[in-house]
Amino acid sequence: MHLLITRPIEDADATIRALKQRGHSAVSVPLLTIEPVANLSFDLHDVQGLVITSANGIRAFAQANEQRDVAIFAVGQASADTACALGFTPITAAAGDVPSLARLIEQRCDKAAGVLLHLSGAQRAGDIKELLEAAGFTVRRQNAYGARALDHMPQPLAGLLTATDRPQLDGVLFFSPRTARIFKKLVTDAGFNHACGHLTAYCLSQAVADALTPLRFKGLRAAPRRDQEALLALLDSE
């Protein structure tokens, strides 16, 4: 299959490699641009661990701070793999969503051992700070990056959706509700809704799939788990 990747460029390359290993081709048109906060600095003197709800958080931290021997509690395997590649240790990964991350931290951490530092984006899906504070932990949140959305239909995406002289797209991969909403707005504003009828949308979760409503795709598939492997496994069953 020939697939469109909509996620930020920082994550798209790994997804494209994984797709090629499965025999698929892919093209990347990022709908979000990740922008680390300028002049970041971190106070870790009272911190027992970093709470990571996106790989972008640990990337931003690594750019601004050389310390790597701080405990990482990652929302899922992708974020954990990014932390590992950047040299952090120890790393513990949850099951891919905020509630499982909160449960993991409750099981592994001592409330009296220090502050948990949540490296967040300017926009958040799910409030890990609220869940952990309700469980008795002290949590400090620090915005480490922003994610700027495209506000107009990019020519590469318009060309892919309307192409007649090149391989047609078979599907689109969506990894977040926000990216799904951006795609929906761009397609609707450009009057390209009809193009979705030739595509299958492969979504990281049901929440991502719901964010595409009311676009009408040829197929709409949601992964049973919130991780890339489960999402790509949907392609194997086609």
Mean pLDDT: 94
Helix content: 25-40%
Order of helices and strands: EHEEEHEHEHEHEHEHEHEH
User: What does the radius of gyration come to?
Assistant: 19 Å
Number of domains: 2
Low-confidence stretches: none
CATH topology of the largest domain: Rossmann fold
- CATH domain class name of the largest domain: Alpha Beta
Note the beta-strand portion: 15-25%
**Spatial order of the strands forming the largest sheet:** 3-8-7-4-5-6
Query: First CA to last CA: what distance?
Result: 10 Å
Plain-language structure description:
The chain folds into 2 domains: 2-31 and 150-236, 3-Layer(aba) Sandwich (Rossmann fold), CATH 3.40.50.10090; 35-146, Rossmann fold, CATH 3.40.50.10090. Helices cover 36% and strands 23% of the residues. It contains 9 helices and 11 strands. The strands form 2 sheets. A 6-stranded mixed β-sheet has the order 3-8-7-4-5-6, sandwiched between helices. Helix 2 (55-64) links the parallel strand 4 (47-52) and strand 5 (72-74). Helix 2 packs parallel to helix 3. The longest helix has 14 residues, at 177-190. The protein is elongated, with a radius of gyration of 19 Å. The mean pLDDT is 94.
